[in-house]
Amino acid sequence: MSSIIQLLPDHVANQIAAGEVVQRPASVVKELLENAVDAKATDIKLIIKDAGKALVQVIDNGLGMSVTDARLCFERHATSKIRKAEDLFSLHTKGFRGEALASIAAIAHVDMKTKQDQEELGTQIIVEGSKFVSQEVAVLPKGTSFAVKNLFFNIPARRNFLKSDTVEYRHIIDEFQRVALAHPNIYFTFFHNGSEMFNLPPSSMRQRIVNVFSGKTNEKLVPVQEETEIVTIQGFVSKPEFAKKSRGEQFFFVNDRFIKSGYLHHAIMAAYDGILRDGAQPSYFLYLTVPPNTIDINIHPTKTEIKFDDEHAMYAILRASIKHSLGQFNVAPVLDFDRDSNLDTPYSYKNLEGATPTIQVDGSFNPFSDDKINKHYSGSNYKKPEPTSSWESLYVGLKQEGEFISGSSDFSFESEEVTGSLFNEEEVEQTVNNAYQIHKKYIVSPIKSGMVIVDQQRAHQRVLYEQFLTNMTVNQASSQQLLFPLDLFFSATEMELIQDLKLSLVNTGFVFEETTTDHVVISGIPVNVTESEVSLVLEQLLSDLQDGIPDSSFSQNDTIAKSMAKSLAVKTGTALTVKEQENLVNGLFACKDPNVSPFQKPTFITMRVEDLDKKFAL
Ligand code: ADP
Ligand code: MG
After folding, report:
1. I want to staple 509 with a disulfide (CB 3.0 to 4.6 A). Which of 11, 38, 201, 479 is the partner?
2. Which of 329, 363, 389 is the last residue of a domain?
3. Are 496 and 522 in the same domain?
4. Whose CA is closest to atom 17 on ligand 1?
5. What's the 459 CA to ligand 2 centre distance in angstroms?
6. In angstroms, what is the span from residue 391 Cα to ligand 1's centroid?
7. Which atom of ligand 1 is nearest to the CA of 60?
8. 252 in a domain, yes or no?
9. Minimal-distance CA residue to ligand 1 atom 7
């Protein structure tokens, strides 16, 4: 029987290996930047075109390569960084596998220029899909330039797999930021399609963070400093009141290498225990220095995970030092995070001494004689309610029996006298209820067949969502002009998203006076947004877009409408006036799809009189 096993030719093996090293343009950015850092460059330029799909170029002023090395660097397992396996445990470089350049050259067009300081002339090599196309002697400055063009030109399937430019560009920014933050002493510049996106002169760690994430970052940071036998920790964490909804700005560096660690992240969250609002994420930029022989960075092919010898000690030290910093800078006991003044009053009312809520009841009132609440009940389930005396007496009975109101902790009604004055003076006189709010969460309202119980938050989300969507699709959102335009700062990544969404945002009623790489000036806002809510709305939106901007304008509008509805909807825990309750219920049933929130959760349930009868029959 004939034998069938063959060794794969190098270019095939390289292409296969490339699958692991190069997933997307951002992987090329990472490898080239790290090589430049390893070559001791002090000035590194990153130039990309079309989110790296057309070009990724890194120019450094580092050590450069000899003619022989220039040729050898494209071979697989060709590295100057380790000689033997033990070297892995005294590693001071980013690279060590010697497979990045071989992999990249297997799946792209590479134009490399390199010159060592002491040489007169340098070398230029062009490789396309692992084939050496040319090698020439050239007059060059000191250092190395790698231009990687047409990524995946010979693997169309991989090329087709790439995401939109926005998504790929964000991955590149992520990689760039990681390297730039790890090396504040190196001058980094970054150009995308000819515009300068980052210009980061050598600076302190804190200044570098601020330069990467815009000026407003500075006031957020609290320094962390701890030196122990097994680790030195330096860096910054954010004050709890600046915690964000997204996990964007969280960075661990171990020996100047960006790493991910769920375990250490947990240590940080533990340090913030009790001082963050639900789901909020602190920013952190932490630089850990450990003896190289106490970590194993070899457990993950893309090298963002590492293993520590003594993880438990690391956890404890990290948590303690962050707790200490937060305490020292007096930022720990901050309890009120995002109180909106609009929402404040009902809570403070709660603390008022001895003021037992009183309810004014119009005993002669028949809730079913007033049909204004019914005119929007257009859903098929809803018919115009008809008088049902048992309902009337049930309501009235409840209201008259004081113990239900003040005595029962799990069944309390807000008096309209109080809530009315909180929100709207005109409501004070209103004594007629077609809707009741219970537990500041649900609104109960009678309907012909029984009653409907509406979840106020979800219902309001639905109402706002449809409003925004209508405004956006008919392009006639009304906008309120601001007397003093708002100047809001965002990181480069966030600004990029805002730019991409600008048109859709304008359709909701935003007016942008100016957008630069790190801030926007907003001179008009949608009518249903207040000035103090603007940054909340935008921040929520950016956090909702973590996974990329939808390609079609329809789904962009949808995402924006959902996100704004989520930010602006009245929350569980907010007391509503009767008028507000009625408006909400009416608004909900005027919606095209009143049954579910924009996030597909039920907005209301109904309970028929028969259901109640059954319960009472027991
Ligand atoms: P690794 O970084 O794991 O060693 P690479 O394939 O990334 O493997 O690079 C191979 C070798 O090419 C490196 O070990 C280094 O000697 C050389 N090299 C790569 N990029 C540069 C650069 N920008 N300047 C100088 N030498 C470089
Ligand atoms: Mg490398």
Report:
1. 479
2. 329
3. yes
4. 73
5. 54
6. 81
7. 23
8. yes
9. 100
Classify residue 64: in a domain, yes or no.
yes
Question: HSE on the CB side for 228, CA within 13 Å?
Answer: 14
Q: Take residue 71 and report the two structure tokens written for it.
A: 């040729």
Per-residue tokens: 428? 């004070």
Atom of ligand 1 nearest to the CA of 143: 24
Domain boundary among 271, 300, 329: 329
CA distance 565 to 560: 8
Domain that holds residue 560: 437-606
Mean pLDDT of the region 561-575:
88
Q: What is the pLDDT of residue 475?
A: 59
Residue type, 281: Q
CATH number at residue 581: 3.30.1370.100
pLDDT digits (tens, 9 = 90+) for 265-276: 999 999 998 888
Q: Are 524 and 499 contained in the same domain?
A: yes
Q: Which of 35, 61, 103, 111 to mutate to test the pocket of ligand 1 (most atoms within 8 A of CB)?
A: 35
Question: Do 86 and 195 belong to one domain?
Answer: yes
- Based on the fold, state whether residues 184 and 241 are members of the same structural domain: no
Instruction: Give the pLDDT confidence of 56-95 residue by residue, as tens digits.
Output: 999 999 999 999 999 999 998 888 878 887 777 777 888 7
Atom of ligand 1 nearest to the CA of 146: 23
Q: How does DSSP classify residue 244?
A: B
| Number of structural domains the chain divides into | 3
Q: How far is Cα 90 from Cα 201, in angstroms, rounded to an integer?
A: 30
Q: Does residue 590 register a pLDDT over 70? A: yes
Residues with CB under 6 A from ligand 1: 31, 35-36, 39, 60, 62-65, 73, 78-81, 95-101, 144
d(CA 249, CA 543) in angstroms, rounded, equals 12
Q: Which of the pair, 222 or 300, is modelled with greater confidence? A: 222
Angle at 81 between CA 77 and CA 82, to 5 degrees: 75
Q: Tell me: do 145 and 230 sit in the same domain.
A: no
* pLDDT band at 390; cut points 50, 70, 90: very low
Pick the ligand that lies closest to the CA of residue 77: 1
